Amino acid sequence: MKKTLLAASLITALTPALAEQVIPLGYHLQTITTPAEMEFHVTGLDVDSDNNIYAATRFGDVWRYTATGQWLKFAEGLHEPTGLLVEDKQNIVIAQKPELTRLTDTDKDGVADDYIKLADGWKFHDNYHEYHFGPVKDKQGNFYGTLNLSHGDPNAFDMGTMGSSGGYRGWAYQVNTKGEFVPYAFGLRSPAGIGISPDNEVFFTDNQGDWVATSTLQLLQKDKFYGHPVSLIDHPDFSKDKIRNTSVEDYDKWRQKPVVHIPHVEIANSPGNPEWDTTKGKFGPFSGQIFVGDQTQSNVFRIILEEVDGVRQGAVINFIDGFQSGNIRIKFDHKGQLWVGQTARGWGAKGPKPYGLQKVVWDGTTPFEVLDIKAKPDGFRVSFTQPVNAESVNKKSITAEQWHYTYSANYGSPKVDLTKLEIKSIKQVDAKTLDLKLDATEDHVVMIDFAGVTNAKQQHPSSTKVYYTLNKKPE
Amino acid sequence: MIKQTKKYFGFVFSTLLITFTSSVFAKNIDEQVSSLLKDQAALASGEKNYGIYCAACHKKDLSGAVGFNLKDSEWVHGDSAEAVFNNISNGFAQAGMPGFGTMLSEEQRKEIVAFIFSKREGMANIEYKIYQPSQYPNYSFADLAKATPTKQGKSTDNLIHFELAETKEYAIVVTADVYAPNDKDAMLFAKPGPFSQFEVLVDGEPVKMQGGWDRFWQLKKGYQHLTFKMMLPKAPYNELTQTNLDLRVMTPDEAINFFPVSKKAETIINQLEFNIIADKKVVVQRKKVADLPAYSISVGFPSKLNYAFNTKTCSVVGVWKGDFLNVGPNIIERGKSSSLPIGSWVFKSPQVIGSQQAEDCLFTKYHKTDQPTFYFNLNGVDLSLTVKTVNAGLIEFEYQVINAHGNALLALDLPELANSKVAVSANNQSIAADKINLAKTKTFTVTISGI
Questions:
Q1: Is the pLDDT reported for residue A12 higher than 60?
Q2: Pick from A58, A114, A154: which is nearest to B253 by CB?
Q3: Test mutation, B277, B287, B292, B374, chain A, max A CBs within 10 A
Q4: Which residue of B has its CA nearest to A113?
Q5: Is the CB of residue B421 less than 8 Å from the CB of residue B449?
Q6: Smallest CA–CA separation between B435 and chain A, in Å?
Q7: Which contacts qualify for B23-27: CB closer than 8 Å, 24 or more apart?
Q8: How many domains does one find in chain A?
């Protein structure tokens, strides 16, 4: 555990936001110097086989950052790209607002000369909010991306806030191996992050707002509805009247429930792409878990998933905060370092800088942290990265509460039916593992706070609160 | 865009002097110009003479070049009809503007004034009254009717200065003349943050407030009288509430800023300049551009000619002369507004160089070299387009047929230009644009000369 106290206790009380940075012991932030005098808002990140980093900027450039620290411009003049995928050194695919584009360096001089359209089967109406996020590519070679709803477009169909002028706004798409554009799923709002798991499953995050009670992580599945009705104007079974006249209850039954709720402000406001830790331990003890950056909170948090009777669910826990700007894209390189692309333009971020690039480096020290959590029929099994101090484990050192959210057209939802949960019993399964008995309710977020739990050195976890979305209780 | 710095204060003084000594005559001129504003024939005559005598220095669209911008809110030499009439009549010898008093009849000069006023955009005659919370205990605009303002006055720069209130919590009532564009839909836009109250009247009639985070009110076209009331919420209030309001006139889709209404808006709009200039090599930029359709890719040449290719219609949707693009409005904050072409249009959409069957076009790619080439398919025919500029007066659009099957006829739409020549040729022979046989014609060129 590392809590960096920056001020005396009196000042800390007055300015809690400045008081401490959440960062596990052994992890460090490094800031990369970006090209001078460039608007370097990094909204696309990937790495090639030689560990060169590629960054797409909102200004419209693609840059390569070599292992020796050189910046070279690979492409320019793109329309606000918000995603980048390296196929190989000569082929980079980017998601720019009007098009999915392959940038090809045909003469191998290190600069793209062919700007090839891969897909533009959706409609772009020059509205600023019509972002195009992606792409990811599955093992079969299909591409996936997501298409933001519009905002403030006077010609758009809306139900209060976000709108669509048609053309698959609020949809996810696939470009299959024949190059065909396939409208894939609908009901998305502002799905700013898309990622693919080592098991070849595509997930996306969606940002809190109208019809999205709090930000979410969702599993992308064909022909599924994810909750925002405006996108249905491109659905063959709907008209504008039918969209308006369908009840919230009916939409609620139809929609896919989030795999994970990401509590607003406490964890994230505007999450970016989910990135799986496939570093096999090079980044520390969290192998296999998902990392996500947040644009507003300037943090990176972890997501721990499991499947219970065919239902996906899991937990979120803060990992590191205090980044210099808004974290929208993250990517592991081959050394197991986590690169973080940043922008704060237009929405603001806790970090003071307008843009930038940082990376998280692990020095090999194992911190004392909550490692994993799994639902049980009567509670949760929680493991830590190090043996826990048994004396620190009791019903006072661990507290829990639960709540749920209201699905509606309103802009976000408060916590509903917030209730304290009694920890009925705590059983130490092994040195690092605890079983907690508590009466949690399905369709609720259960927050467990391990504020009093320590390791043998009396260290606390840097993040003590775990937020578990209990869609299904194991039987 | 060229923005003139206006510092001829001496002339302002002399203009005021003339105004003072000839008030009866002034009233006549003001009234006469006001009546000419409703006379289409007089406006047409004014436009014609403006084109002959004034446009060379002030530009055809009145946006200013050597001479000042004549359609914005800044009127260095006075903004009454009489002042403008006198300026046209007497000129400004030191600044290089001749007097037209002997060259043009009095009627012709009044018609020019009427034409200029018909194109005017911006604010005028702004008067403000500021109130403190003790004067409106119910936080209602009705309270203000009986209240005495703690501050009141007239704006000296045709902008509202909300920071004049100096306190965090206040109410303000502003009256002003507004010259909105005559030919485009315009909205009064405010970015107040939450909880502030507003009341807006145009020509005495209440206007409905629209929007959520941003607030906007529909304006009429051309001249109108505005009453704008704002009351900040009771403190302590949300940190996002803006006491120094960004207030401006924009298109309903927020793509184009017509003019600032508040000083804060002017400051923000002035920061929106980020020019990309093709000074040494060809530059390709894919951005939202004012007056161009979505999906346009802009290409700038060091010869100072620029064009835009549209990937949905495979057409050339604009050519302009000048430095390339100000992308500032498109890359600042959320980038809601359009990039602005620098210079003047040779033509723009809906005029195009493109197929009449554009809906059947499939864009493939562009190859970015010194002369970028666009590749696309029209009705089963693979084509490429490479554009060359020799100098600022000549641009050539060279089409290559890569792969044609059967009887492939292309009917090409061309722009109709008053001052430049548009021609289509193949093998140095002029050909008809409406029947190009792509099976036989492997290369053809559209040339615009005399730009």
A1: no
A2: A154
A3: B287
A4: B368
A5: yes
A6: 29
A7: B25/B82, B26/B80, B26/B82
A8: 2
Cα distance between residue A421 and residue A238, in whole Å: 43
Phi-psi region of A77 (alpha: psi -120 to 50; beta: other; left: phi over 0): left
The string over A266-277, giving b where at least 16 C-beta atoms fall within 10 Å of a residue's C-beta and e elsewhere, is bbbbbbbbbbbb
- What is the arithmetic mean of pLDDT over B305-326? 96
Instruction: Indicate if A293 and A410 belong to the same structural domain.
Output: no
Q: The tokens 């007239």 sit on which residue?
A: B154
Mean pLDDT of A79-86: 98
Q: Which two tokens stand for residue A90?
A: 């000569």
Q: What is the pLDDT of residues A392-415, one digit of tens each?
A: 999 999 999 999 999 999 999 999
For residue B337, give the chain A residue with the closest CA.
A128
Counting Cα atoms < 13 Å in the Cβ hemisphere of A331 gives 25
Structure-token pair, residue B20? 């003072």
- pLDDT higher than threshold 80 for residue B68: no
* Range in A49-53, B56-60, B68-72 the model is least confident about: B68-72
Domain at B122-269, CATH class:
mainly beta
3-state secondary structure of B339: strand
Q: Which domain CATH number covers A404?
A: 2.60.40.1220
Token duo for residue A467: 């937020």
Identify whether residues A347 and A401 lie together within a single domain. Answer: no
Residue among A350, A163, A413, A148 at smallest CA distance from B212: A163
Same domain, A230 and A290: yes
Does the residue A364 lie in any domain?
Answer: no
In a domain, A420, yes or no: yes
Its pTM stands at: 0.84
Q: Looking at the predicted structure, is the pLDDT value of residue B136 above 60?
A: yes
* Residue (of A103, A197, A209, A93) closest to A148 by Cα position: A209
Nearest to A113 among B283, B364, B369 (CB): B369
Residue A365 maps to a domain: no
- Give yes or no: residues A418 and A354 share one domain: no
In the chain, the amino acid numbered A475 is: E
Fold of B9-118: Cytochrome Bc1 Complex; Chain D, domain 2 (1.10.760)
Distance CA B58, CA B84 (A): 14
> What type of residue sits at position A209?
G
> What secondary structure does DSSP assign to A355-399, as a single string?
EEEEEEEE-SPPP--EEEEEEETTEEEEEESS-B-GGG-STTT-E
Q: CA angle, B204 as apex, B200 and B206 as ends, to 5°? A: 40
Residue A243 is part of which domain span? Answer: 20-359
pLDDT at B59: 79
> What is the residue type of A385?
T
Crossing angle for the helix pair B9-21 and B81-90, to the nearest 10 degrees? 110
CA closest to A58 among chain B residues: B331
**Cα distance from B442 to chain A (closest Cα, Å)?**
23
The reply to whether A350 and A440 lie within a common domain is no
- The reply to whether A4 falls in a domain is no
pLDDT of residue B212: 77
Q: How many CB atoms lie within 10 A of CB A86?
A: 18
Q: What is the pLDDT of residues A111-157, one digit of tens each?
A: 999 999 999 999 999 999 999 999 999 999 999 999 999 998 889 99
Number of Cβ atoms within 10 Å of the Cβ of A240 = 12
Kindly state the average pLDDT of the residues B43-69: 83
Same domain flag for A344 and A380: no
Give the span between the Cα atoms of A327 and A271, in whole angstroms: 8
- Name residue, tokens 């070049």: B65
Residue A149: which of A267, A47, A234 has the closest Cα? A234
Rounded to whole angstroms, how far apart are CA atoms A243 and A163? 13
Dihedral of the alpha carbons of B137, B141, B146, B149, in degrees to the nearest 10: 90
Count how many pairs of residues, chain A against chain B, have C-beta atoms within 8 Å.
80
Cβ count within 10 A of residue A401: 16
Distance CA A251, CA A260 (A): 19
Q: Please state the domain extents for chain B.
A: 9-118, 122-269, 275-449
